[in-house]
Specification:
about 190 residues; 10 helices; homodimer; mainly alpha; globular; about 0% strand
């Protein structure tokens, strides 16, 4: 589900290149962490030109998302939610988040556990930080607000998917969306 | 800092009894989990009458709090915040939470990590669930609302103390209290 761009790949088919880059990135992100593993060194390990990272994945973050083999592309989802502007953002954000992750709660749970227990080498946290906060900052015009919204989403995910706090964990999606969406909107509007 | 009640202890000094109960509880909570370890079996291991658990700790939950050796008594703190009623509850809750835990963020962080990675045998999560939700349910009159507020607090704590999400982690207490308190209040009032 990561964006694929058209163009001529170097060194084998586009599919081969993608697969080699993903394999190399997975190794280097695990060994050095997301920040320290450079696009250049990942491309070198994959035996392709560094420009092919942007070509296939849009950015190093896009490559990271691809290594996670997620059932959805979080960047695409969040971009769509944010693009509709600050009115009703809270409800849209919570609804999209739960519609996306309720069916994949175990995957999400594993990501968050890694992020919480080993924040230093958990690329998922860096995705949350850099992508989500950047997009939300654009939408609400304030980085503190954006990061507080991320904190709220993190709390909802932890309560619903990880510690399974009742009744957050068992409530219908609609019941959660109403109340929690309103509370996020209070930060958006504040 | 756990509540001590006056009265005549059985079997040694009150301090001895407390210490023996705490040691026995720590062992049994760790071995069996909070729910499965009974007051009766803890008292038996400590060689004292089961009634002394309530006498010294108020409840099995109070005993659990004592085993954690926390720098503050969360039950006492939350009770005071909730007792003042739903008006302004959001701001009071966030302010009290941060004033309490900002100076002890490492302790809090360790508790939450255990809760998130091993929810089944993390008594801290059961404290959050049973004590905090019960008190908040009394205050806001709705268990779903109460549990969503707990989710928000959990998110704030995770962002500020564990993954240290900027600028949530570095913002002043007052900056966080304003915005986040408003968002919790939106659930209280909703």
């Amino acid at each position: 589900m990561t964006p694929r761009r058209r163009g001529r790949p170097a060194g084998g088919s586009a599919g081969d290149t993608r697969a080699r880059l993903i394999a190399a990135a997975r190794e280097q992100f695990a060994a050095r962490g997301f920040a320290a593993a450079s696009v250049r060194s990942i491309a070198a390990a994959a035996g392709v030109d560094p420009s092919l990272v942007n070509h296939h994945f849009g950015s190093k973050q896009g490559l990271l998302v691809a290594t996670m083999d997620l059932p959805v592309d979080p960047i695409e989802k969040i971009s769509a939610v944010v693009a509709a502007g600050p009115d009703g953002l809270g409800v849209r954000l919570v609804r999209t988040f739960l519609e996306t992750w309720d069916p994949h709660r175990d995957t999400f749970s594993a990501l968050i556990r890694t992020g919480v227990t080993s924040p230093d080498d958990a690329p998922a946290v860096e995705v949350a930080r850099s992508i989500l906060i950047r997009l939300l900052t654009d939408a609400v015009g304030d980085r503190l607000k954006a990061s507080l919204i991320v904190a709220q989403i993190l709390g909802l995910a932890t309560a619903r998917y990880i510690v399974r706090l009742d009744p957050v964990a068992t409530a219908t999606l609609d019941d959660v969306v109403g109340a929690y969406g309103r509370s996020i909107q209070a930060i958006v509007d504040g």
